[in-house]
Protein backbone atom coordinates (compact mmCIF):
# COMPACT_ATOMS: atom_id res chain seq x y z
CA UNK A 1 0.00 0.00 0.00
CA UNK A 2 1.28 3.46 -0.96
CA UNK A 3 0.30 6.81 0.62
CA UNK A 4 1.10 10.38 -0.43
CA UNK A 5 2.37 11.41 3.00
CA UNK A 6 2.20 10.60 6.70
CA UNK A 7 -0.91 12.78 7.15
CA UNK A 8 -2.93 10.58 4.80
CA UNK A 9 -1.54 7.47 6.47
CA UNK A 10 -2.54 8.68 9.94
CA UNK A 11 -6.08 9.53 8.76
CA UNK A 12 -6.50 6.03 7.32
CA UNK A 13 -5.26 4.45 10.54
CA UNK A 14 -7.56 6.65 12.62
CA UNK A 15 -10.62 5.58 10.59
CA UNK A 16 -9.49 1.93 10.77
CA UNK A 17 -9.06 2.15 14.54
CA UNK A 18 -12.55 3.58 15.05
CA UNK A 19 -14.35 1.20 12.68
CA UNK A 20 -12.60 -1.88 14.09
CA UNK A 21 -13.10 -0.76 17.68
CA UNK A 22 -9.42 -1.04 18.65
CA UNK A 23 -7.05 1.42 20.30
CA UNK A 24 -3.76 2.10 18.49
CA UNK A 25 -0.59 3.84 19.58
CA UNK A 26 1.85 5.65 17.28
CA UNK A 27 5.52 5.10 18.14
CA UNK A 28 7.56 6.49 16.48
CA UNK A 29 5.47 9.24 14.85
CA UNK A 30 7.88 11.12 12.59
CA UNK A 31 7.89 12.79 9.18
CA UNK A 32 9.85 9.94 7.57
CA UNK A 33 8.27 6.95 9.28
CA UNK A 34 5.26 5.99 11.37
CA UNK A 35 4.80 2.80 13.36
CA UNK A 36 1.48 1.94 14.97
CA UNK A 37 0.77 -0.82 17.46
CA UNK A 38 -2.29 -2.10 19.25
CA UNK A 39 -2.40 -0.88 22.85
CA UNK A 40 -3.71 -4.23 24.11
CA UNK A 41 -0.91 -6.07 25.89
CA UNK A 42 0.12 -9.15 23.98
CA UNK A 43 -1.68 -8.21 20.73
CA UNK A 44 0.67 -8.79 17.74
CA UNK A 45 -1.03 -6.28 15.40
CA UNK A 46 1.36 -3.66 14.07
CA UNK A 47 2.13 -1.66 10.93
CA UNK A 48 5.15 0.33 9.77
CA UNK A 49 5.08 2.96 7.02
CA UNK A 50 8.15 4.84 5.86
CA UNK A 51 9.35 7.01 2.98
CA UNK A 52 10.56 5.31 -0.18
CA UNK A 53 13.78 6.93 -1.34
CA UNK A 54 13.35 6.62 -5.10
CA UNK A 55 9.74 7.96 -5.34
CA UNK A 56 9.32 9.95 -2.10
CA UNK A 57 6.07 8.06 -1.51
CA UNK A 58 5.12 6.45 1.78
CA UNK A 59 5.00 2.67 1.52
CA UNK A 60 3.90 0.05 4.06
CA UNK A 61 7.04 -1.88 4.99
CA UNK A 62 5.67 -4.35 7.53
CA UNK A 63 2.11 -5.23 8.45
CA UNK A 64 0.71 -7.90 10.79
CA UNK A 65 -3.14 -7.76 10.41
CA UNK A 66 -4.30 -10.07 13.24
CA UNK A 67 -5.86 -8.65 16.40
CA UNK A 68 -6.47 -10.45 19.69
CA UNK A 69 -8.93 -7.81 20.88
CA UNK A 70 -11.89 -6.03 19.23
CA UNK A 71 -14.90 -3.83 19.93
CA UNK A 72 -13.78 -1.33 22.52
CA UNK A 73 -16.59 1.13 23.26
CA UNK A 74 -14.13 3.93 24.03
CA UNK A 75 -11.46 5.04 21.59
CA UNK A 76 -8.96 7.88 21.94
CA UNK A 77 -8.76 8.11 18.15
CA UNK A 78 -12.40 9.28 18.09
CA UNK A 79 -11.53 12.89 18.88
CA UNK A 80 -13.51 16.10 18.19
CA UNK A 81 -11.77 16.94 14.85
CA UNK A 82 -12.57 13.46 13.49
CA UNK A 83 -16.19 13.64 14.68
CA UNK A 84 -16.52 17.14 13.16
CA UNK A 85 -15.27 15.85 9.81
CA UNK A 86 -17.67 12.90 9.76
CA UNK A 87 -20.81 14.71 10.95
CA UNK A 88 -20.17 18.15 9.42
CA UNK A 89 -23.04 18.00 6.91
CA UNK A 90 -25.52 16.77 9.55
CA UNK A 91 -24.65 19.58 11.97
CA UNK A 92 -24.74 22.29 9.26
CA UNK A 93 -28.21 21.13 8.16
CA UNK A 94 -29.40 20.76 11.80
CA UNK A 95 -27.54 23.34 13.94
CA UNK A 96 -30.07 22.76 16.71
CA UNK A 97 -28.97 19.12 17.11
CA UNK A 98 -28.48 18.17 20.78
CA UNK A 99 -25.32 16.68 22.25
CA UNK A 100 -27.07 13.46 23.25
CA UNK A 101 -28.24 13.07 19.65
CA UNK A 102 -24.62 13.25 18.43
CA UNK A 103 -23.72 10.65 21.05
CA UNK A 104 -26.52 8.42 19.79
CA UNK A 105 -25.31 8.81 16.19
CA UNK A 106 -21.80 7.69 17.18
CA UNK A 107 -23.14 4.70 19.11
CA UNK A 108 -25.34 3.66 16.19
CA UNK A 109 -22.72 4.19 13.47
CA UNK A 110 -19.53 3.06 15.21
CA UNK A 111 -20.57 1.45 18.51
CA UNK A 112 -18.57 3.99 20.49
CA UNK A 113 -19.34 5.97 23.61
CA UNK A 114 -18.11 9.57 23.36
CA UNK A 115 -18.42 12.11 26.16
CA UNK A 116 -20.64 15.17 25.87
CA UNK A 117 -17.55 17.35 26.19
CA UNK A 118 -16.08 15.87 23.01
CA UNK A 119 -19.41 16.28 21.21
CA UNK A 120 -19.63 19.89 22.37
CA UNK A 121 -16.11 20.63 21.11
CA UNK A 122 -16.88 18.91 17.82
CA UNK A 123 -20.04 20.96 17.36
CA UNK A 124 -18.16 24.17 18.18
CA UNK A 125 -15.54 23.34 15.53
CA UNK A 126 -18.20 22.90 12.84
CA UNK A 127 -20.23 25.95 13.87
CA UNK A 128 -17.15 28.18 14.04
CA UNK A 129 -16.09 27.14 10.53
CA UNK A 130 -19.53 27.56 8.97
CA UNK A 131 -21.63 30.18 10.79
CA UNK A 132 -19.29 32.99 9.74
CA UNK A 133 -17.33 35.70 11.56
CA UNK A 134 -20.13 37.74 13.13
CA UNK A 135 -18.06 40.90 13.75
CA UNK A 136 -16.72 40.94 10.19
CA UNK A 137 -20.20 40.38 8.75
CA UNK A 138 -21.78 43.21 10.75
CA UNK A 139 -18.97 45.49 9.57
CA UNK A 140 -19.80 44.71 5.92
CA UNK A 141 -23.57 45.10 6.07
CA UNK A 142 -23.46 48.29 3.98
CA UNK A 143 -21.44 46.43 1.32
CA UNK A 144 -24.01 43.61 1.36
CA UNK A 145 -26.88 46.06 0.92
CA UNK A 146 -25.22 47.75 -2.05
CA UNK A 147 -24.37 44.45 -3.74
CA UNK A 148 -27.91 43.13 -3.31
CA UNK A 149 -29.44 46.32 -4.72
CA UNK A 150 -27.05 46.38 -7.68
CA UNK A 151 -27.66 42.73 -8.64
CA UNK A 152 -31.42 42.86 -7.95
CA UNK A 153 -32.59 46.34 -9.07
CA UNK A 154 -35.71 47.54 -7.26
CA UNK A 155 -34.84 45.66 -4.07
CA UNK A 156 -35.41 47.58 -0.84
CA UNK A 157 -32.86 47.29 1.98
CA UNK A 158 -32.98 49.60 4.98
CA UNK A 159 -30.36 49.47 7.77
CA UNK A 160 -31.00 51.05 11.17
CA UNK A 161 -28.09 51.98 13.41
CA UNK A 162 -27.62 53.83 16.68
CA UNK A 163 -24.79 56.12 17.77
CA UNK A 164 -25.88 56.20 21.41
CA UNK A 165 -24.91 52.67 22.50
CA UNK A 166 -21.18 53.05 21.79
CA UNK A 167 -20.05 56.70 21.46
CA UNK A 168 -18.51 57.47 18.08
CA UNK A 169 -19.58 54.18 16.47
CA UNK A 170 -22.62 52.95 14.55
CA UNK A 171 -24.24 50.01 16.34
CA UNK A 172 -26.63 47.67 14.53
CA UNK A 173 -30.34 48.01 15.33
CA UNK A 174 -32.04 46.33 12.39
CA UNK A 175 -32.06 45.50 8.67
CA UNK A 176 -35.13 45.30 6.41
CA UNK A 177 -34.99 43.18 3.23
CA UNK A 178 -37.58 43.09 0.44
CA UNK A 179 -36.39 41.54 -2.83
CA UNK A 180 -37.77 43.00 -6.06
CA UNK A 181 -38.80 39.58 -7.45
CA UNK A 182 -40.89 38.85 -4.33
CA UNK A 183 -42.33 42.38 -4.36
CA UNK A 184 -43.52 42.15 -7.97
CA UNK A 185 -44.72 38.58 -7.53
CA UNK A 186 -46.87 39.46 -4.53
CA UNK A 187 -48.43 42.49 -6.19
CA UNK A 188 -49.30 40.57 -9.38
CA UNK A 189 -50.06 37.00 -8.31
CA UNK A 190 -50.76 36.58 -4.58
CA UNK A 191 -53.88 36.95 -2.48
CA UNK A 192 -54.43 40.14 -0.49
CA UNK A 193 -53.49 38.53 2.79
CA UNK A 194 -50.27 38.74 4.79
CA UNK A 195 -49.25 37.22 8.09
CA UNK A 196 -46.75 38.51 10.66
CA UNK A 197 -44.66 36.50 13.08
CA UNK A 198 -41.31 36.56 14.85
CA UNK A 199 -38.65 33.94 15.49
CA UNK A 200 -35.68 33.99 17.85
CA UNK A 201 -32.18 33.90 16.35
CA UNK A 202 -29.79 31.34 17.80
CA UNK A 203 -26.46 32.96 16.90
CA UNK A 204 -23.97 34.75 19.16
CA UNK A 205 -25.79 38.10 19.08
CA UNK A 206 -29.28 36.55 19.38
CA UNK A 207 -32.01 38.97 18.28
CA UNK A 208 -35.21 38.23 16.35
CA UNK A 209 -36.27 37.81 12.76
CA UNK A 210 -39.69 39.35 12.01
CA UNK A 211 -41.31 38.09 8.82
CA UNK A 212 -44.21 39.00 6.54
CA UNK A 213 -45.62 35.98 4.65
CA UNK A 214 -48.48 35.61 2.17
CA UNK A 215 -50.19 32.77 0.25
CA UNK A 216 -50.05 31.90 -3.44
CA UNK A 217 -52.78 30.41 -5.66
CA UNK A 218 -52.13 26.92 -4.32
CA UNK A 219 -52.46 28.09 -0.70
CA UNK A 220 -48.72 27.66 -0.10
CA UNK A 221 -46.54 30.14 1.74
CA UNK A 222 -45.08 33.04 -0.21
CA UNK A 223 -42.27 34.99 1.57
CA UNK A 224 -42.79 38.72 1.23
CA UNK A 225 -40.24 40.54 3.42
CA UNK A 226 -38.26 40.11 6.63
CA UNK A 227 -36.31 42.18 9.12
CA UNK A 228 -33.61 41.32 11.63
CA UNK A 229 -33.83 43.32 14.86
CA UNK A 230 -32.34 43.30 18.34
CA UNK A 231 -35.65 42.37 19.93
CA UNK A 232 -39.37 42.31 19.23
CA UNK A 233 -41.15 45.50 20.30
CA UNK A 234 -43.80 47.97 19.18
CA UNK A 235 -41.07 50.09 17.66
CA UNK A 236 -39.58 47.26 15.53
CA UNK A 237 -43.03 46.10 14.35
CA UNK A 238 -43.99 49.69 13.50
CA UNK A 239 -40.78 50.03 11.49
CA UNK A 240 -41.54 46.86 9.51
CA UNK A 241 -45.11 47.99 8.80
CA UNK A 242 -43.97 51.47 7.68
CA UNK A 243 -41.51 49.90 5.23
CA UNK A 244 -44.17 47.51 3.91
CA UNK A 245 -46.71 50.30 3.43
CA UNK A 246 -44.25 52.06 1.18
CA UNK A 247 -43.17 48.95 -0.80
CA UNK A 248 -46.69 47.52 -1.21
CA UNK A 249 -48.15 50.87 -2.27
CA UNK A 250 -50.46 51.00 0.75
CA UNK A 251 -49.68 54.58 1.81
CA UNK A 252 -52.69 56.15 0.09
CA UNK A 253 -55.22 53.35 0.75
CA UNK A 254 -53.99 52.74 4.33
CA UNK A 255 -54.22 48.99 3.65
CA UNK A 256 -57.89 48.92 2.68
CA UNK A 257 -58.72 45.55 1.13
CA UNK A 258 -55.75 43.83 2.79
CA UNK A 259 -56.27 41.06 5.35
CA UNK A 260 -53.68 40.69 8.10
CA UNK A 261 -53.00 37.66 10.30
CA UNK A 262 -50.69 37.63 13.29
CA UNK A 263 -49.38 34.97 15.64
CA UNK A 264 -51.92 35.63 18.41
CA UNK A 265 -54.92 35.36 16.10
CA UNK A 266 -57.00 32.19 16.10
CA UNK A 267 -60.35 31.92 14.39
CA UNK A 268 -63.66 30.13 14.75
CA UNK A 269 -64.46 28.02 11.69
CA UNK A 270 -68.20 28.74 11.51
CA UNK A 271 -68.96 30.57 8.25
CA UNK A 272 -72.47 31.85 9.14
CA UNK A 273 -73.93 33.36 12.30
CA UNK A 274 -76.53 30.71 13.17
CA UNK A 275 -73.95 27.93 13.20
CA UNK A 276 -71.58 30.16 15.18
CA UNK A 277 -74.27 30.80 17.82
CA UNK A 278 -74.97 27.07 18.06
CA UNK A 279 -71.31 26.34 18.78
CA UNK A 280 -71.19 29.10 21.39
CA UNK A 281 -74.14 27.46 23.17
CA UNK A 282 -72.28 24.14 23.19
CA UNK A 283 -69.21 25.82 24.69
CA UNK A 284 -71.37 27.63 27.24
CA UNK A 285 -72.53 24.30 28.64
CA UNK A 286 -68.95 23.42 29.55
CA UNK A 287 -68.46 26.46 31.77
CA UNK A 288 -70.50 29.62 32.03
CA UNK A 289 -67.72 32.23 31.81
CA UNK A 290 -65.91 30.88 28.72
CA UNK A 291 -68.23 32.51 26.18
CA UNK A 292 -68.33 35.80 28.08
CA UNK A 293 -64.52 35.99 28.08
CA UNK A 294 -64.42 35.04 24.40
CA UNK A 295 -66.91 37.69 23.30
CA UNK A 296 -64.84 40.44 24.88
CA UNK A 297 -62.75 40.34 21.70
CA UNK A 298 -64.00 41.76 18.42
CA UNK A 299 -65.70 38.88 16.56
CA UNK A 300 -64.69 40.32 13.17
CA UNK A 301 -61.05 39.48 13.92
CA UNK A 302 -61.42 35.80 14.91
CA UNK A 303 -64.65 34.33 13.48
CA UNK A 304 -65.22 33.36 9.83
CA UNK A 305 -68.88 34.27 10.09
CA UNK A 306 -67.87 37.96 10.34
CA UNK A 307 -64.92 37.96 7.93
CA UNK A 308 -64.98 40.25 4.92
CA UNK A 309 -65.09 38.54 1.55
CA UNK A 310 -62.48 40.44 -0.49
CA UNK A 311 -59.35 38.40 0.38
CA UNK A 312 -60.74 35.04 -0.90
CA UNK A 313 -58.85 33.30 1.86
CA UNK A 314 -60.54 31.76 4.89
CA UNK A 315 -57.47 30.57 6.76
CA UNK A 316 -58.08 30.27 10.49
CA UNK A 317 -54.45 30.17 11.66
CA UNK A 318 -51.08 31.74 10.96
CA UNK A 319 -49.41 28.53 9.79
CA UNK A 320 -47.87 30.25 6.77
CA UNK A 321 -45.54 32.15 9.11
CA UNK A 322 -44.85 29.09 11.25
CA UNK A 323 -43.92 27.21 8.07
CA UNK A 324 -41.48 29.96 7.10
CA UNK A 325 -39.87 29.98 10.56
CA UNK A 326 -39.26 26.22 10.47
CA UNK A 327 -38.11 26.47 6.83
CA UNK A 328 -35.25 28.81 7.82
CA UNK A 329 -34.48 27.11 11.15
CA UNK A 330 -30.90 26.16 10.21
CA UNK A 331 -30.16 29.67 8.93
CA UNK A 332 -31.26 31.24 12.24
CA UNK A 333 -28.18 29.75 13.95
CA UNK A 334 -25.73 31.64 11.72
CA UNK A 335 -24.24 35.12 11.65
CA UNK A 336 -26.07 38.02 10.03
CA UNK A 337 -24.94 37.99 6.37
CA UNK A 338 -24.61 34.19 6.23
CA UNK A 339 -28.17 33.92 7.51
CA UNK A 340 -29.60 36.54 5.14
CA UNK A 341 -27.81 34.94 2.19
CA UNK A 342 -29.13 31.49 3.07
CA UNK A 343 -32.68 32.88 3.21
CA UNK A 344 -32.18 34.63 -0.14
CA UNK A 345 -30.84 31.45 -1.75
CA UNK A 346 -33.72 29.39 -0.37
CA UNK A 347 -36.20 31.92 -1.80
CA UNK A 348 -34.35 31.95 -5.12
CA UNK A 349 -34.50 28.16 -5.41
CA UNK A 350 -38.12 28.09 -4.24
CA UNK A 351 -39.14 30.64 -6.89
CA UNK A 352 -37.63 28.37 -9.53
CA UNK A 353 -39.17 25.13 -8.23
CA UNK A 354 -42.62 26.71 -7.77
CA UNK A 355 -42.42 28.17 -11.29
CA UNK A 356 -41.78 24.67 -12.66
CA UNK A 357 -44.52 23.23 -10.45
CA UNK A 358 -47.18 25.68 -11.70
CA UNK A 359 -46.27 24.91 -15.30
CA UNK A 360 -47.00 21.22 -14.64
CA UNK A 361 -50.56 21.75 -13.39
CA UNK A 362 -52.90 19.33 -15.12
CA UNK A 363 -55.56 21.99 -15.73
CA UNK A 364 -56.09 25.71 -15.30
CA UNK A 365 -57.00 25.39 -11.60
CA UNK A 366 -54.49 24.88 -8.77
CA UNK A 367 -54.20 21.34 -7.29
CA UNK A 368 -55.37 22.59 -3.88
CA UNK A 369 -58.51 24.16 -5.37
CA UNK A 370 -59.20 20.98 -7.39
CA UNK A 371 -58.94 18.92 -4.21
CA UNK A 372 -61.47 21.18 -2.44
CA UNK A 373 -63.79 20.98 -5.46
CA UNK A 374 -63.60 17.19 -5.29
CA UNK A 375 -64.50 17.16 -1.59
CA UNK A 376 -67.37 19.60 -2.15
CA UNK A 377 -68.64 17.51 -5.08
CA UNK A 378 -68.91 14.47 -2.78
CA UNK A 379 -70.93 16.53 -0.29
CA UNK A 380 -73.06 17.91 -3.15
CA UNK A 381 -74.25 14.40 -3.99
CA UNK A 382 -76.08 14.30 -0.63
CA UNK A 383 -77.78 17.69 -1.02
CA UNK A 384 -81.30 18.30 -2.40
CA UNK A 385 -82.01 21.24 -4.76
CA UNK A 386 -85.19 23.24 -5.41
CA UNK A 387 -85.28 25.72 -8.33
CA UNK A 388 -87.56 28.78 -8.52
CA UNK A 389 -87.41 28.94 -12.33
CA UNK A 390 -85.32 32.14 -12.45
CA UNK A 391 -81.97 32.47 -10.61
CA UNK A 392 -82.84 31.27 -7.09
CA UNK A 393 -81.98 27.82 -5.72
CA UNK A 394 -82.81 26.29 -2.35
CA UNK A 395 -80.36 23.63 -1.16
CA UNK A 396 -81.27 21.28 1.68
CA UNK A 397 -78.12 20.10 3.48
CA UNK A 398 -78.86 18.33 6.75
CA UNK A 399 -80.80 20.54 9.18
CA UNK A 400 -80.05 23.74 7.25
CA UNK A 401 -81.44 25.17 4.01
CA UNK A 402 -79.22 27.48 1.93
CA UNK A 403 -79.88 29.83 -1.00
CA UNK A 404 -77.49 30.01 -3.99
CA UNK A 405 -77.46 33.00 -6.37
CA UNK A 406 -75.41 32.68 -9.57
CA UNK A 407 -75.68 36.37 -10.42
CA UNK A 408 -73.74 37.28 -7.29
CA UNK A 409 -71.70 34.05 -7.08
CA UNK A 410 -72.93 33.66 -3.53
CA UNK A 411 -74.33 31.13 -1.10
CA UNK A 412 -75.84 31.88 2.31
CA UNK A 413 -73.30 29.52 3.92
CA UNK A 414 -70.71 32.17 2.83
CA UNK A 415 -68.05 29.56 2.11
CA UNK A 416 -68.07 30.37 -1.63
CA UNK A 417 -67.62 34.10 -1.00
CA UNK A 418 -64.93 33.66 1.65
CA UNK A 419 -62.77 31.18 -0.23
CA UNK A 420 -63.52 31.94 -3.87
CA UNK A 421 -64.14 28.24 -4.57
CA UNK A 422 -67.74 26.98 -5.16
CA UNK A 423 -69.12 25.30 -2.05
CA UNK A 424 -71.04 22.03 -2.02
CA UNK A 425 -74.36 23.87 -2.34
CA UNK A 426 -73.18 25.86 -5.38
CA UNK A 427 -71.90 22.65 -7.00
CA UNK A 428 -75.28 21.03 -6.39
CA UNK A 429 -76.97 23.75 -8.44
CA UNK A 430 -74.28 23.55 -11.14
CA UNK A 431 -74.86 19.82 -11.50
CA UNK A 432 -78.61 20.43 -11.57
CA UNK A 433 -78.24 22.97 -14.41
CA UNK A 434 -75.41 21.00 -16.08
CA UNK A 435 -72.97 23.90 -15.71
CA UNK A 436 -69.18 23.55 -15.68
CA UNK A 437 -67.75 24.15 -12.21
CA UNK A 438 -64.25 25.46 -13.03
CA UNK A 439 -65.30 28.79 -14.61
CA UNK A 440 -66.77 29.81 -11.23
CA UNK A 441 -63.44 29.39 -9.39
CA UNK A 442 -61.89 32.76 -8.47
CA UNK A 443 -58.93 34.04 -10.52
CA UNK A 444 -56.55 33.71 -7.53
CA UNK A 445 -56.52 29.94 -8.04
CA UNK A 446 -55.86 30.02 -11.79
CA UNK A 447 -52.63 29.04 -13.49
CA UNK A 448 -51.95 32.38 -15.18
CA UNK A 449 -52.23 34.19 -11.82
CA UNK A 450 -49.89 31.77 -10.07
CA UNK A 451 -47.36 32.04 -12.90
CA UNK A 452 -47.26 35.83 -12.34
CA UNK A 453 -46.34 35.28 -8.69
CA UNK A 454 -43.21 33.37 -9.71
CA UNK A 455 -42.45 35.06 -13.04
CA UNK A 456 -39.55 37.16 -11.72
CA UNK A 457 -36.07 35.87 -10.92
CA UNK A 458 -33.92 36.49 -7.85
CA UNK A 459 -30.43 37.12 -9.18
CA UNK A 460 -27.33 35.36 -7.72
CA UNK A 461 -24.66 37.09 -5.66
CA UNK A 462 -20.90 36.61 -5.32
CA UNK A 463 -19.23 35.67 -2.04
CA UNK A 464 -18.38 38.34 0.53
CA UNK A 465 -14.63 38.27 -0.18
CA UNK A 466 -15.32 39.49 -3.76
CA UNK A 467 -17.42 42.54 -2.81
CA UNK A 468 -15.91 46.02 -3.19
CA UNK A 469 -15.47 47.88 0.09
CA UNK A 470 -17.49 51.07 0.54
CA UNK A 471 -16.39 54.22 2.28
CA UNK A 472 -19.28 54.06 4.76
CA UNK A 473 -18.31 53.46 8.41
CA UNK A 474 -18.31 49.88 9.63
CA UNK A 475 -21.31 48.74 11.68
CA UNK A 476 -20.67 47.31 15.13
CA UNK A 477 -22.62 44.25 16.32
CA UNK A 478 -25.33 44.97 18.90
CA UNK A 479 -24.52 44.82 22.56
CA UNK A 480 -25.42 41.32 23.75
CA UNK A 481 -28.28 41.60 26.24
CA UNK A 482 -30.45 39.10 28.04
CA UNK A 483 -33.50 38.06 26.00
CA UNK A 484 -37.06 38.41 27.39
CA UNK A 485 -38.36 35.54 29.46
CA UNK A 486 -37.56 33.74 32.65
CA UNK A 487 -33.87 32.76 32.84
CA UNK A 488 -32.98 29.10 33.16
CA UNK A 489 -31.85 27.78 36.54
CA UNK A 490 -29.37 25.05 37.23
CA UNK A 491 -30.99 21.99 38.75
CA UNK A 492 -29.40 20.44 41.79
CA UNK A 493 -28.13 16.94 41.12
CA UNK A 494 -29.51 14.21 43.33
CA UNK A 495 -27.02 11.59 44.45
UniProtKB/TrEMBL annotation:
Keywords: Metal-binding, Zinc, Zinc-finger. Residues 402-434 form the SWIM-type domain. SMART domains: ZnF_PMZ. It holds the Pfam family SWIM. The keyword Cell membrane does not apply. Coiled coil: none annotated. One of its GO terms (molecular function) is zinc ion binding. InterPro entries: MULE_transposase_dom, Transposase_MuDR, Znf_PMZ, Znf_SWIM. It comes from the Eukaryota. This is Uncharacterized protein LOC104226253. The gene is LOC104226253.
Amino acid sequence: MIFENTVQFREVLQTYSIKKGVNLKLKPNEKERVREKCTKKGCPWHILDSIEGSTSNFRVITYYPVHKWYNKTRNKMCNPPWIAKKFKDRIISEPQIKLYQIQALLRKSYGLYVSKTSCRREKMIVMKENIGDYKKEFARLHDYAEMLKSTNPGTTIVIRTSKDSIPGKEVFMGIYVYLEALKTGWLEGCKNIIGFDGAFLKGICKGELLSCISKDGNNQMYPVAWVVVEKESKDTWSWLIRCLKHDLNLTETEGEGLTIMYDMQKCARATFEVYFSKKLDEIDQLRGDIVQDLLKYNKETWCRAYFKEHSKCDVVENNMCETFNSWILAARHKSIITMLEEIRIKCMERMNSMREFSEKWVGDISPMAMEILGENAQRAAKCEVKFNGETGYEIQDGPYKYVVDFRRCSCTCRSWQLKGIPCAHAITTMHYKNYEVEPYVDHWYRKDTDVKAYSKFIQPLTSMNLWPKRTLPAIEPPVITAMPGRPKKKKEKSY
